[in-house]
Amino acid sequence: MPRKRYSAQTKTAIVEAVKTARNAKKSWAEACVAAQKAGYKGSLGGLEQMIRRADVKTSKHSARKVALKSIGKRGPGRPRIAAGTGGGVSSIEALVNQVVRERVAGPLERAIAVLQSC
C-alpha cells in the first residue's frame, strides 16, 4: 500500500496539533482526534510513526552525527580508542628491540665483565 502524502502545510498542521495535544498531557488517541481535525487520514499507529519520524528529522542529532560520535567507542566502562593507536610495523619493531635489549644485553654485559676481570 503506497504511503499517503500530505502537503507541507497539512503535515506541519498535523504535527503541531499532535505536539500541542501531547504537551497538554493528552493520550495518543486524543492527539489522533486533533490530528484528524487538522487533516490526518490514517490510523493511530501511522500517526505515531509519522510524528516520531518528524521528530528525528528535526532533532539536533542527525544519524551522521551519531555515527561519527560512536567511532572509537568500545562499550560501557571502557575508554575510547585514541586515533592513530593501531600500531604498525614501527611499533612492533620497537617492541622487539626493547625485548632484545632487556633479555640479551644484560646477560651479555655481565659475561663481558666476567671475561674482562679474568
Number of extended strands:
0
Determine the structural class based on helices, strands and strand pairing. mainly alpha
Query: How much helix, percentage-wise, in residues?
Result: 55-70%
Tell me, rounded to a whole number, the average pLDDT.
Answer: 80
Number of helices: 5
Overall spatial form: rod-shaped
Give the number of domains.
2
Termini separation: 97 Å
H-E string: HHHHH
Major sheet size, sense and barrel closure: none
Strand content: under 5%
Radius of gyration: 33 Å
Unreliable stretches (pLDDT < 50, length at least 5) are: none
Protein architecture, described:
By secondary structure, the protein is mainly alpha-helical. It has two domains: 8-61; 89-118. The protein contains five helices and no strands. Helix 1 (8-23) packs antiparallel against helix 2 (28-37).
Task: Fill in the keyword field for this structure.
mainly alpha, 5 helices
Structural topology:
Layout: H1 8-23, H2 28-37, H3 44-58, H4 63-70, H5 89-117
Helix pairs in contact: 1-2
Summed up:
The chain is mainly α and 118 residues long.
